[in-house]
Amino acid sequence: MAFLVALQVYSVRDYAEKDLKGTLEKIKEMGYDGVEFAGLYGNQASEVKSMVEELGLIPVSAHVPIEEMLADPDKVIGDYAEIGCKYIAIPYLTEERRPGQAGFEKTIKEIEMLAKVAKKHGIQMLYHNHDFEFVKVDGEYGLDIIYNTISEDLLKTQIDTCWVNVAGEDPAEYVRKYSGRAPVVHLKDFVMRGKEKPEKLYELIGIESEQEVKDSEEDFAFRPVGYGVQDFPSILKASEEAGAEWVVVEQDRPSLGKTSLECAAMSREYLKKLGV
């Protein structure tokens, strides 16, 4: 297939926090073409640029919280431009910013403003979804409202295929829906016992709490790509048809008794078997 494969460094943050360069080296050895950052772990942009250049890893993109960018748009976005990132993604919205909440319209305007700053720095803004964007506002999903309100030139999609599935939609179809606007697709696998999502779902992804949450076999758990319920052959086919340049492996929490690095390696090996 025509696209390249990156790892979201958040997947192996427990290693990256201690030794970013050593962790990037291991990611390269696994056969990943690039990385997507979620923070720089105390390193300067110039230092991270040197790391990826030395290792031959492509710094495809970065997840940067909207609040961090709003605090100093030119400095924050400029740092990722210095590293060489082609994309920046809004990774998550706090509750008051989400569809159906009072801050949603203001958030859309702020994303549009940040996308213009990013364009000035030669970076394309993306929006990365969870399942909470699949709330209907006036009969339309919040996610589609974001994409329909901000021009395609300023904002492209980063469909997270796990969360589309959790929300009850077909991941492959949702990628295909945004053909020509889907340069980066997130590959994420999971298992969910029963139809009810666990109450502490966002603690499981390490955003609302970094406290240890048991990988419960009863409700919801993340898996290496190919080890859960997702139909990746169809997702990859849709990504190719949609014109994706990159697929990004992300696993918010390790599972199956493996370390985060072992899970990342399992995901890469599975994708190689599919010819990716």
Helix content: 25-40%
- Output the structural class: alpha/beta
Describe the main β-sheet briefly. Answer: 8 strands, parallel
* Share in β-strands: 15-25%
Under CATH at level 1, the class stands as Alpha Beta
CATH fold category name: TIM Barrel
CATH homologous superfamily designation: Divalent-metal-dependent TIM barrel enzymes
Helix count from the secondary structure assignment: 12
| Overall morphology | globular
Over all CA atoms, what is the radius of gyration?
A: 17 Å
Mean pLDDT: 93
What do you see in this structure?
By secondary structure, the chain is α/β, with parallel strands linked by helices. It has one domain (4-188, 231-253): TIM Barrel, CATH 3.20.20. 39% of the residues lie in helices and 17% in strands. The chain contains twelve helices and twelve strands. The protein has helices at 13-16, 20-30, 45-55, 66-71, 73-83, 104-120, 142-149, 161-166, 171-177, 201-204, 232-241, 260-273; strands at residues 4-8, 34-37, 58-63, 87-90, 124-128, 136-137, 140-141, 155-158, 184-187, 189-192, 220-223, 246-249. An eight-stranded parallel β-sheet has the order 8-5-4-3-2-1-12-9. Strands 6-7 form a two-stranded antiparallel sheet. A two-stranded antiparallel sheet has the order 10-11. Strand 6 (136-137) and strand 7 (140-141) form a beta hairpin. Helix 9 runs parallel beside helix 11 (232-241). The N and C termini lie close together (6 Å).
Kindly list the characteristics that best describe this protein:
39% helix, TIM Barrel, 276 residues, 12 strands, alpha/beta
